[in-house]
């Protein structure tokens, strides 16, 4: 995930900053990062947190609580916040990549592409048939608007030959010789079902369609459960 890679780099900068100016400068130089961009990211997250607080999504005072927590040596992970309700709301899922990816899906949808894996091939070994590894160039990516698209070589996922989920979200697209996707992350199927577009449960076909395009094979019972869960999330 390009987004989680950026998050880890940012958290590394926060940890270096707590060790002092020299450690911070060394981290930035060795990681080939921009100190100015990192400071802008730091300011932006507190601006966003203040907005979420005003809208009632997080408790009031959460921004101040997080600032105090970090000044006292606390990181962005899920430790050191016990007993503080505001921090618990903010950080209890900070270490869950699946929750982070679900949030990415909710925020970036409909910037979604479908990954089409090649047909599985197997290699005979002494212990039996083994699934043959595929290469990144054999994958095919499609968006609803552009059809075939490609990962930009700068993506950390550029050389990935297989994704656990066939759905990726992306921050931006750029067309040069081809349509390239930048800043991509794989998202779980249930994130698409719960946070994606309009849900169309087709019982007789055993399918659930999200946003009129993304198709999931699902028995009627699962389709009904997903629809009910989606309705509860929408009412929350």
Description:
By secondary structure, this protein is an alpha+beta fold. The chain contains 8 helices and 10 strands. The chain has helices spanning 2-18, 21-30, 35-55, 62-71, 85-91, 97-108, 189-195, 220-235; strands spanning 112-116, 122-125, 128-131, 140-143, 147-151, 167-175, 179-186, 199-202, 207-210, 214-217. The strands form 3 sheets. The chain has a 5-stranded mixed β-barrel with strand order 1-4-5-7-6. A hairpin with a 2-residue loop joins β2 and β3 (128-131). α1 runs antiparallel to α2, α6 (97-108) packs across α7 and α7 packs across α8. The longest helix has 21 residues, at 35-55. The radius of gyration is 21 Å and the shape is globular. The two termini are 28 Å apart. The mean pLDDT is 89.
User: Which strand order do you get reading across the main beta sheet?
Assistant: 1-4-5-7-6
Number of strands: 10
Question: Helix count?
Answer: 8
Helix content percent band: 40-55%
| C-alpha-based Rg, rounded | 21 Å
Mean pLDDT across the residues is 89
Instruction: Give the distance, in angstroms, between the N- and C-terminal Cα atoms.
Output: 28 Å
* Class from secondary-structure proportions: alpha+beta
Low-confidence stretches: none
Topology pattern, helix = H, strand = E: HHHHHHEEEEEEEHEEEH
Strand content: 15-25%
**What overall geometry do the principal axes of the alpha carbons give?**
globular
For the biggest sheet, the summary is: 5 strands, mixed, barrel
